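Intended use. Records like the one below are meant for learning the mapping from a protein sequence to its folded structure. Do not use them to infer anything beyond what is encoded.
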Amino acid sequence: MSNHATPPAPGRKPGTAYGLHATRADGLARLHEFLPRAGDDYARKRNDDRGPSDRGNVSMLSPYLRHRLLTEHEVVAAAIAMHGARGARKFLEEVLWRTYFKGWLQLRPAVWASFVAERDAMREVARNDEALATSLVQAEAGTTGIDGFDDWARELAQTGYLHNHARMWFASIWSFTLRLPWTLGADFFLRHLLDADAASNTLSWRWVAGLQTPGKPYVATTDNIARCTHGRYRPTGLATNVVAIAGPPPPAAELGRLDALPDHRPALRLVTPDDLHPESLPIAADVRGVVCVRSCTAPVAWPWGSAARGFVDGAVADTASRLRCTHPDGAVKVLDTPDAHAVARMAQLTGVDTVVVAEAPVGPMADALDALRGALAGDGIMLLRVRRDWDARFWPHATRGFFPFRERIDGVLEELGMIGVGVDCPSFLGRVS
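Structure written out for the chain above:
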């Protein structure tokens, strides 16, 4: 078993090993601290996994972006303001990978449903297969004896974080060297990563498996791991003769329409952990009250693990606190789940028959909101979803792979007024709110 350094401060609470605090203020502070390194420095060094004690070459902003404590728009705008669109190109692309994945899955929600069904089926197989169950326990506990892999498993469980390159190596070793079901590996990540979302996690594991880009699996190699970890790890015995995992082709892409919100209609605002910066989502409604929810339990429970739950609980509390500064006493409530009875009661108390929520991307919360919508309709209450302009402009371009999507980035940024023809940065981007 590997005897390399384990993550720092193992006795600290889950999700705090890197000092990650689930507040918008902490996210903004991290953004401003990282911005000077978001240009050429990031492009040169981002692939290096220096270990838990040195994460200065990456931003560590992904948990804040995943829950939209920080929005993609403001993070991209800040990077452009400091480095220009060309100078910050690689960082912008990394932020937009998450947007691309969300758009791709939004166009093909059946892929998420298929993953959940296969994962649950493999869980049942593991319950009845002693050898598979033992292998899964060893992989998740970091006791396989594979150099690097074991430390990454423990780092993930202890901190809720892994460097992006380590995630790729881990998924490849899990799927091809250990020959474990990829869906259970994706589930392991879902249960621990602070930034786990249905799109980025599921589609990244599909990409490593050779399902997302059919027939082209990602193969972790000893030399690549040794080079990018600066010699900390040099695993032996990794699979080299790798065959992509087979699967059905994804369904045709189709982006569903949202309901129109009547102007100035009295409404209750619903806030979910998928979008925790309601201040930046303009809605044409007379907001009479706010309900924030921490999680969902049906049809799929989420968040999945203790670290993620802790981060989400803190992020929702921070959002509710910010909203109470601008709403009357008693107008902001926090619920554990989007319980239809509680939401309907709040709507009745505020005298409205409309609930407005930022659209949740395909995943557990979106499924829960679909169920809530049906239940509220029985009480004569409408649940209307609002799509952010960022998503509305980028998602329709996620019809194929990332590289065709990448070709559309500058055009969309121009549409959003973030760059101009021949101009890297308009003056209004000089400040992050």
